[in-house]
Write a sequence for this structure.
DNA sequence: CTGTTAGCGCATTCAC
DNA sequence: GTGAATGCGCTAACAG
């Protein structure tokens, strides 16, 4: 069906080795022959079979990206960042959705290795032991995105979740709030834990005693925020502010507040996280912590590319991107 | 490094041909030998190299999914539908983001073919001539999602965009609206055109004359809706209702209305499309047309799988999934 | 510089 | 039923 290197060699009256050489610049070829070959290649519109190439080279120009559904809201943007960067360097992105299922993750990891992917980006939010083991066993470049392994033996790119939440909590405290609930995600994710710790530390640093019942650990989505909100706002003695681990949770919380007869921010202040496009358009506009999602994606790709080039060095780096408090309308100063 | 079929053959004292046979059930093998081989396979944890296999079989167990950024809001859900379905059948999803760039699309299509993908799902919203040509030239199973080629020579899965918009417009008319603006996406997308036609027809069928200046064709995102809204609501003689091609556009339009001192739905009714998760949580809750996004994804996968099995038959089917008007708060009845 | 040859890991035709 | 040999399309030693 398709053209092979043989066809080119025959029509150009050279050996297949020569064709391979001009195509890969692997060895010097005389200008005349090179040109002759290129002419045939162009006329035929020939391009080498990447599968055969992979079989020999053990590289595929493929990069696997594992995603789960956490923070699913910004996955799309994140992936675009990765994808664009990789594409510019001739790599293709193999996207794998794991739904956070360890078994599925492992399945994909093995599959990817068998396909000779040149690298992997993990956006699965909970670095499991199985993953660590896999990358210990297989020498495949990998970037942990938005989460790191405990020992920091692998490259990673993150924002400073601890500091970001610390800053957010501090902001609420500066506004005069002394009772602040924490609408969390699952504590299995280090990301969540780091945020929680930042929150606790900010409380502590400002002489606020953490209260039993301020923590709601459900998930990163709208429904979780709504449920936590309905639960919290039904209480007699409710906090004056709520920190949410995502904007979607914040939106759910705002809905719950309104359904409970509370106004935001007059009766309760609600802070989000992510700064998804809708955050600035919501009513009230959501005060939130901005993550540079696209940059996290493209940064992952850049780091991975570097690691692929330097494969074998065992080098490993960590990158932390800046966050930013975006002040809008959903949090107000307490002036009583 | 990795295990090969030779290792298995050696340890089981059989030829590689026999190993291949038990693994593929391609030819009968005596029970004793089969068992002996399987034992070695299990002990070694051997699995065949898919790349070598692809080189011979000309199939990869890979499916390419091309996406652009239109309706980017629901791509995530759509892809999950595809991915899950394919995964269950042993296929892996190769996701390619084209940004609607024809050149990039073509690049990917060629790459995918060279990787021997077993099929392709197109979610690029504008069936371009180049794409049609590609699939005419290359006999690769393909599903056009959310858009069809004009001639209907390829399989596709859609909702009935024409009817859905007709229904939505009719709903607004039934509410008493006689002047209805259309916040559109780019007219290069057939999807957009079909919706526009449904809108026009509904107007016509109910004796409403279409007015110059009711059409705003920008894009499917929030900003487009906002801009169109600011433009429209500044006018003296503004419509009482607006149909938007997506919920994000609707959200932008609602923002614009409020920034123009208009209340929704008291002063202007705004209707969305898609029913993204936020639509029901927005303030006001958005009246919209629901698309079964996940089902469009899994349906695409099912149709593709079927086509892969029946490859060569040249069979081609079209599937239309139901839409639904979701009545919420953003549109009100005119009672004057 | 260039051509010949030998694999990469596997499926499959042939002989037996 | 089973094994030896051939080749998928390509790269890389090896000679010349």
């Amino acid at each position: 069906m398709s053209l092979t290197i043989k066809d080119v060699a025959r029509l150009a009256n050279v050996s297949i080795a020569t064709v391979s050489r001009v195509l890969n610049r692997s060895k010097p070829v005389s200008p005349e022959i090179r040109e002759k070959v290129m002419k045939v290649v162009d006329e035929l519109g020939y391009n080498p079979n990447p599968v055969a190439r992979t079989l020999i080279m053990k590289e595929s120009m493929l990069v696997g990206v594992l995603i789960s559904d956490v923070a699913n809201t910004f996955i799309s943007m994140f992936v675009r960042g990765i994808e664009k960067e990789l594409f510019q360097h001739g790599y293709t992105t193999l996207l794998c959705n794991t739904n956070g299922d360890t078994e599925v993750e492992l399945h994909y990891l093995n599959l990817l290795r068998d396909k000779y992917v040149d690298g992997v980006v993990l956006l699965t939010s909970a670095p499991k032991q199985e993953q660590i083991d896999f990358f210990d066993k297989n020498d495949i470049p990998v970037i942990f995105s938005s989460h790191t392994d405990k020992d920091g033996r692998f490259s990673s790119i993150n924002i400073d979740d601890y500091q970001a939440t610390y800053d957010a909590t501090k902001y609420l405290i500066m506004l005069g709030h002394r009772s602040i609930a924490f609408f969390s995600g699952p504590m299995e994710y280090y990301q969540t834990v780091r945020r929680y710790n930042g929150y606790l530390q900010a409380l502590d640093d400002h002489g606020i005693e953490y209260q039993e019942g301020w923590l709601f650990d459900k998930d990163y989505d709208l429904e979780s925020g709504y449920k936590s909100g309905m639960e919290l706002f039904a209480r007699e003695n409710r906090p004056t502010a709520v920190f949410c681990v995502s904007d979607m949770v914040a939106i759910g919380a705002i809905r719950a507040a309104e359904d409970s007869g509370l106004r935001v921010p007059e009766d309760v202040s609600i802070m989000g996280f992510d700064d998804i496009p809708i955050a600035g358009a919501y009513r009230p506009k959501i005060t939130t912590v901005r993550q540079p999602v696209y940059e996290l994606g493209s940064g992952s790709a850049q780091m991975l590319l570097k690691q692929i080039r330097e494969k074998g060095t065992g080098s490993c780096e960590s990158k932390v991107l800046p966050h930013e408090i975006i002040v809008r309308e959903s949090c107000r100063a307490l002036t009583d």
